[in-house]
Amino acid sequence: MRSILSIALLAFTALVQPACSTVLAPPTSNPSLSTITKPSTSLRRLFVASEDGTKIYAEAIGDKRNTPVVFIHGFGGSVVHFNKQFEDAKLLKNLYLIRYDMRGHGRSEGPLEAGAYESIRHAQDLKAVLDGFDAVRPFVAGWSLGGFIPADAVAAYGPSFISGVILLGSGIGPDDNFLSIIARPTVAELLTGLASTDVLEFRNATMAFSKSLYAPGYEIAFEEEQRVVGGLLIMHPAVRAHTGARSVPGGPITAAADKLPFLVIGGSEDAHIDAEIVRDYMTENRFKIEFHLLDGIGHSVFYEAPEKTDKLILQFVKKHASNKV
């Protein structure tokens, strides 16, 4: 039995580890950086301490003189979901790409107290990652739940802290219940099951959640499906509950709607978010949005349609970057 468990753990580690030849040092009080030689292909990894001491795992690739774009995953995810973006030659050439595991996810630490998942903590995590990579005023690309982090950052540090927002299967607005406005009715049921401590209920919710991330009929790679399932499995039930229940301060970012550009990319087959409602809702609240609805694509627009999504991201950043790409 012990050998079977060892093999299983090794196999799972191979699935969740990004493909890279660098060696990652364990987290310490002083973040350690690991680099390869060429700036256009080097993957730098670090653990950085957020303001409350929580260790956050992060990666960056590309020339840091380029405009930084931070990719933030959704509920139960990790940095591995953005592998297609981190392998895109045009993005690597023109941008400084950063990604990190949100607290309680992936290789980042996950405190069990509800207060550890308040808005300010997420803002502080982003700031710590940016400081670790010497990046300022990034464009923030958030998938699903990760799309709320720009609101956290603006509430904590003001709109000048970032250069723009890229929402991937996500949305934002001033209302306390904005998620109930833009989300499909099935999302609440899925999140309830994911917070369960009943093994069978959690298992069923996890499998349903995994399938719901993509358009019906989309053939998801087995490895990617296992990354989703594994990412949810390693989260503590309390962390899943706190993450799903946290509030988002939409007021400050709405007040700054005329100061920041927004790129909204949604899928017509998104089972989580109604992209057209996002468009209407954000337009009504005077956000400056560039909106794209990808036909036949589900919740994971960047994964299901990487070439189209990456092209839109690069065009958007080129258009709005202060140091033109």
Show the helix and strand layout.
Elements: H1 2-16, E1 43-49, E2 55-61, E3 67-72, H2 83-86, H3 89-94, E4 95-100, H4 119-132, E5 139-143, H5 149-157, E6 164-168, H6 178-182, H7 186-194, H8 199-212, H9 222-233, H10 237-245, H11 250-255, E7 261-267, H12 275-284, E8 288-294, H13 301-304, H14 306-320
Parallel strand pairs: 3-4, 3-5, 5-6, 6-7, 7-8
Antiparallel strand pairs: 1-2, 2-4
Helix pairs in contact: 4-5, 7-8, 8-9
Could you characterize what this model shows?
This protein is an alpha/beta fold. The chain has one domain (30-320): 3-Layer(aba) Sandwich (Rossmann fold), CATH 3.40.50.1820. 41% of the residues lie in helices and 15% in strands. The protein has helices at 2-16, 83-86, 89-94, 119-132, 149-157, 178-182, 186-194, 199-212, 222-233, 237-245, 250-255, 275-284, 301-304, 306-320, and strands spanning 43-49, 55-61, 67-72, 95-100, 139-143, 164-168, 261-267, 288-294. The radius of gyration is 18 Å and the shape is globular. Residues 1-40 have low confidence and may be disordered.
